Amino acid sequence: MSGIAPTATRPAPRGGGGSAQSLTSGPRRGDLVFSGVVRAAAIFLLLLMATIAGFLVFRATTALNANHANVATYTGQWAPDDTPAKFGIGSLAWGTLVTSVIAIVIAAPVAIGVALFISQYAPRRLAQVLGYIIDLLAAVPSIIYGLWGILFLVPHMQGASQVVGDVLGWIPIFNTNGPLGRSVFTAGVILSIMILPIIAAISREIFLQTPREQVEAAYALGATRWEMIKLAVLPYGRRGVGSAIVLGFGRALGETVAVAMVLSTTYNFVTKWLQSGGNTIAANIALQFGSAFKIGQGALIASGLVLFVVTFLVNLLARRITGRADIPKDERWSLLSVFRPGRRTAAHMESSYDANAADVPDREGTLQARDQAPEVAADDTAGRARPHRAAHGAVGDTMLVSPSLPRRIRSTFAGGMTVGTFVLALLPLISILWLVVNNGRHAMSPSFLTHSLRNIDDSQFGGGVYHAIIGTLEQSGLATLIAVPIGILVAVYLVEYGRGALATAVTFFVDVMMGLPSIVAGLFILSMWILGLGQHANGFAGALALTILMLPVVIRSSEEMLKLVPDSLREASYALGVPKWKTITKIVIPTALPGIVTGVMLGVARVMGETAPILLVVGYIQNINVNPFSGDEGQATLPTVIYNTYTSPEHASNDRTWAAAFLLIVIIMVLNIIARLIAWWKKPGRA
Fold first, then answer.
1. What's the whole-number mean pLDDT along residues 166-184?
2. Which of 20, 131, 328, 393 is the most exposed place for a label (fewest CB within 10 A)?
3. Could you give the CA distance from residue 664 to residue 305 in angstroms, rounded to a whole number?
4. Which phi and psi (to 5°) does residue 223 adopt?
5. Region annotation Disordered: residue ranges (predicted)?
6. Angle formed at CA 651 by CA 440 and CA 275, multiple of 5 degrees
7. Collapsing DSSP states into helix, strand and coil, what is residue 86?
8. How far apart, in whole angstroms, are the C-alpha atoms of residue 180 and residue 173?
């Protein structure tokens, strides 16, 4: 999932290019055809979501009917293909919940601190760089997190878990009488690192939208920076941050490969979080699918259906939280009210203005800041709150004095805490990059990029990932060819035509698709394309699964770019008698094209790192297959190479694993950098 907040309100549709009576039959026919096409794309999206749910239900029913165990409480071995069939989903759902809760408890406060540091403390130019660095965490594929987790974090977590057990062992969940390391707690730590950039990115953008007048009013009345944040920034962004946390929780629920690599699989209800063991729905699907037959596949699809419903409800909750943020302006919290004498909040803040100024908030005062006018104007253009202020100012005729020493100490301490959270968030990225680069450079060579692993044993040096590079590029390329036209058409419908129930439903389900677990996309293609229609497991099936994951990224980014096109361009075109469909295709879309390309490249970078759906619907081979449509030969990708070689005890195979990880990170980061450069190059107002 990319970290884009759900849209609380749908954009108002743009007007057409004149009345129907003023159009000739040609333009009118063109408008009707074009509007029909974009509306059909929107309806297709709804049908896709309905089909995903329908096929999951259909394929799960047979397995549920054949099950001879209680699906909610059974904790025995996963044996749906035995006679009689026995499997349970309750313990898997419990493990999914536990790991996700641990992740959100760790990630949420750190992410909020990171967002506050970047938006409120860091200098403007540095803040952009720091934001890009944090975003790199989101660009790291889950397979890399899993590799880092099993080979680096798990050994270190054994000692850390023992320390926690020694201190908190009297609490049952922290008991350490057993093997440590590959536990739900370790999996939760991995998930917290993965969801942190999502929460931080959304929270950062929300904090930057704090009304400037509230920030200036706090500074004008003598607030320290931390008091300004506590009284203006945090209350304004609390609902948006809540939505970001819920979205991060949904992302944690659906993570597959990283958890599957870290956990030591058991099927009981985990009550001791530090001990090895546990399982999740998504991880169990990835681990069991290779050996599953008809009933077993249906059982896995049934568990995927549960995951789909849970993530659907989580995204619905996030949307409801965001929607509630649209409250009338006169009912919103007012910063000035907290400084009025007699208010409870005023008692918690030492007044820094004269007693004669008790009525200052009701007067039209101005802050005489020491910041230079060009700096203030630049921050206004960037939409950032000023991270610094005058040490002394004036409100009306009343002079403000410096805050007291205890207040300055509290403000300095809070600022130091935000710096600490940023450093804490940066450590995993540094560790991952160091391990991947340091271990992967040994096998990197021209032959590694031009040879496959055909007839190469784990113990043999040599071979390469040429076959995986071909598979990665072909599958992501096919997904792009399918997702981009549909995504742009849906975005055009939402911005230019959308109104009524259809547009509301499309907007909602785009948000739902943003949080759709990748394993569910793979299960849908498996149940419909392979099992339902009898098609082969090949590269094209993988491209279809990646299309589902890429569609919402393209739609949301394209929608935002189309909304930024000035209405004056549309109106000028309509005034010249140009039909609406030509205005959109010749003026609106070309104007927004650089931003659309940026969104597409970010979508491509995301799907290139996907592992779980490819394991389900493509398979893995060691030889070169340049035809993604060929039979059921399968097709390797860089993530599946890593997943199929990381467990080898051989040094040569380990070198190839790290080298493949290094190459995957380089490709994805290059795509992200190119996307950033395009966005900067075409930024409005750039000299």
1. 81
2. 328
3. 31
4. -70, 145
5. 1-25, 364-387
6. 90
7. strand
8. 13
Q: How far apart are CA 519 and CA 522, in angstroms?
A: 5
In order, the DSSP letters of 559-607 are HHHHHHS-HHHHHHHHHTT--HHHHIIIIIHHHHHHHHHHHHHHHHHHH
Is 67:302 a contact under the CB 8 Å cutoff? no
Tokens of 281: 């729905």
Spatial CA neighbour of 198 closest among 146, 255, 134: 134
Look up residue 354 and give its amino acid.
Answer: D
List of residues 6+ apart from 329 with CB closer than 8 A: none
- Helix axis angle, 124-139 to 184-208, nearest 10°: 140
Segments making up each domain of the chain, as ranges: 90-289+413-435, 441-682
Rounded to the nearest integer, the mean pLDDT of the chain is 80
Q: How many CB atoms lie within 10 A of CB 33?
A: 10
Instruction: Provide the CATH topology of domain 441-682.
Output: MetI-like fold (1.10.3720)
CA distance 63 to 298: 5
Beta strands, E only, 361-444: 394-395, 398-399
Give me the half-sphere count of Cα atoms (radius 13 Å) on the Cβ side of residue 686.
Answer: 8
Neighbour-count burial of 185, counting CB atoms closer than 10 A to its CB (0-12 exposed, 13-18 middle, 19+ buried): buried
Closest CA to 492 of 553, 579, 555: 555
Instruction: Compute CA distances 231 → 240, 326, 441, 581, whole Å.
Output: 16, 19, 50, 48
pLDDT band at 352 (very low <50, low <70, confident <90, very high): very low
DSSP 8-state code for residue 85: B
Q: Map tokens 């093997």 to a residue.
A: 179
pLDDT of 353 higher than 80: no
Task: Give me 513's structure tokens.
Answer: 């698709």
Q: What's the predicted TM-score (pTM) here?
A: 0.79
Among 213-222, 474-483, 636-645, where is mean pLDDT lowest? 213-222
* Angle at alpha carbon of residue 401, lines to 396 and 406, rounded to 5°: 140
Which amino acid, 216?
A: E
C-alpha to C-alpha distance for 542 and 86, rounded to whole angstroms? 30
CATH T-level fold of 90-289+413-435: MetI-like fold (1.10.3720)
C-alpha closest to that of 601 among 517, 476, 685:
476
Is the CB of residue 207 less than 8 Å from the CB of residue 239? no
Is it true that 90-289+413-435 and 441-682 share their CATH fold? yes
pLDDT of 383 strictly over 90? no
- Per-residue pLDDT of 609-638, as tens digits, reads 888 899 889 988 888 889 998 877 789 999
Q: String of b and e for 557-595 (b: at least 16 CB within 10 Å)? A: bbbbbbeebeeeebeebbeeebbbbbbbeebbbebbeeb
In whole angstroms, how far apart are CA 233 and each of 17, 196, 390, 391?
A: 42, 20, 19, 20
| SS3 track for 295-330 | HHHHHHHHHHHHHHHHHHHHHHHHHHHHHCCCCCHH
Which distant-in-sequence residues (6+ apart) come within 8 Å of 585 by Cβ? 34
Helices (runs of H) and strands (runs of E) counted in the chain: 25, 2
Instruction: Report long-range pairs for 171-178 (Cβ below 8 Å, ≥24 apart).
Output: 172/271, 172/272, 173/271, 173/272, 173/273, 173/274, 174/272, 174/273, 174/274, 175/272, 175/274, 175/275, 176/272, 176/274, 176/275, 177/275, 178/272, 178/275, 178/276
